[in-house]
Write a structure and sequence with these properties.
The protein is α+β, with helices and mostly antiparallel strands. It is about 45% helix and about 10% strand. The protein has two domains: about 65-95 and about 120-290, no CATH class; about 310-395. It contains 13 helices and nine strands. The radius of gyration is 27 Å and the shape is globular.
């Protein structure tokens, strides 16, 4: 760096992170922190500035792609059905946060899904919730059957039981729709006391400085900002391990685990800060849950049908969906130039590969392009010119 003492991060510009920008906010949170001082220290103002870039000045924004989240939920539902498991959804009553202990320059981390770019609850945490609820009710042999060995390292085995995996698999709990990312504040009123305990303020004489050592109200509060979520609906799935799928009582064990998890979510909560109201969930009644499962199964069947389509058919289906979204936005007067640009880009991609399509597929694409021009191009002369160009390129 030619003698400069500035951190490497300060040389690079951070990507635009406003509320309306469709960026992987989890990646931005974990990799794009560039608010270090020249000595690598981080001020509270810099921490808050970074988080405000993620949430916007209003302190709240959506994260996650709706279509990708719906597809992930449908895929998980299909897998759970195939493995004779159970799935349900639960909605957070207020706020939810997990991963606060993950190291991060803002001091409070947040656990992000690596590809869906939303906070989530990992399967290991769900397994811990269920085990904690069932431990007082079940015998050690039953816990061993359901959850496996206490230690997964052969060197840590205790007793004569062999190391093994449990009969149940706890899938990650994923959001089923975009999540509201919110900036929150935790105010520590006695930070010195919690930080350094009874060694704080000790003078050379061995006397304690009671003005700073005691956990008292006259000490200066220290507000600490952190990220949390609102309007969160998670999907939970518990399935039997393949080895136990045909066990005569496995359906009952799965139901017992699901019931324990639902009770824990409603009465004790999940994630961090549950004692202050975070992480409490409402589980819908059986009728609502059944409808949610049917909807997810339909989405999964639709996705399977799309996967079996030809490349041309999939491309035209994507273009048709995008045109419908744009037409709805036009009616609501919310259409943007970015949406129109995305449509044109998708059109160009399909046109470049259409030379290898069948005559019927090229004709179908042309009909879609007519519809696209009617939505995007307002000038009639330009529209007719574009359509003649499409006819020539598609060899119609």
């Amino acid at each position: 760096m030619s003698g400069s003492k500035q951190p490497v991060h300060s040389e690079f510009s951070q990507p635009e992170l406003g509320p309306s920008v469709t960026i992987n906010r989890g990646l931005a949170f974990e990799r794009y922190f560039n608010q270090y001082q020249s000595d690598w220290s981080v001020t509270p103002e810099a921490q808050r500035k970074f988080m405000e870039k993620l949430t916007g000045e209003s302190g709240s924004c959506k994260c996650g792609d709706a279509k990708a989240l719906q597809l992930a939920a449908a895929r998980q539902q299909g897998l759970a059905d195939a493995q004779k498991g159970q799935t349900f959804q639960a909605e957070a009553d207020w706020r939810f946060v997990t991963g606060l202990g993950i190291p991060h320059p803002i001091e409070n981390g947040l656990l992000w899904h690596p590809t869906l770019a939303v906070p989530y609850l990992p399967g290991a945490s769900i397994k811990g919730l269920v085990r904690s609820a069932l431990e007082p009710e079940l015998a050690p042999e039953q816990l061993y059957f359901l959850f496996g060995s206490d230690h997964k390292d052969p060197a840590c085995q205790a007793g004569e039981r062999p190391m093994k995996s449990g009969a149940l698999i706890f899938m990650d709990a994923l959001p089923v729709k975009p999540v509201q990312l919110v900036l929150d504040v935790l105010t520590n009123h006695m930070g010195k006391w919690y930080e350094r305990g009874d060694t704080l303020g000790r003078a050379a004489t061995g006397q304690l400085n009671t003005d700073t050592i005691l956990p008292a109200d006259w000490q200066t509060p220290n507000p600490v900002s952190f990220l949390t979520t609102e309007q969160l609906t998670l999907q939970f799935s518990i399935v039997p391990r393949q080895l136990y799928r045909n066990h005569p009582h496995i359906a009952g064990w799965v139901k017992l685990a699901v019931d324990a998890l639902q009770w824990t979510l409603q009465h004790e909560g999940a994630g961090a800060k549950t004692r202050t109201g975070y992480g409490s969930f409402t589980v819908p009644d059986e009728q609502t849950s059944s409808k949610q499962r049917d909807d997810l199964r339909k989405q999964w069947r639709d996705h399977s049908e799309v996967a079996s389509m030809s490349e041309a058919a999939r491309g035209m289906l994507e273009l048709e969906d995008a045109v419908e979204v744009y037409e709805d936005a036009l009616k609501a007067r919310t259409a943007s130039a970015q949406q129109a640009s995305s449509l044109r880009e998708l059109r160009s991609q399909l046109m470049s590969s259409a030379s290898e399509w069948t005559d019927v597929e090229r004709q179908s694409l042309y009909q879609l392009l007519v519809r696209l021009e009617q939505s995007v191009t307002t000038n009639k002369q330009t529209r007719r010119k574009n359509l003649r160009k499409y006819e020539e390129l598609l060899q119609l």
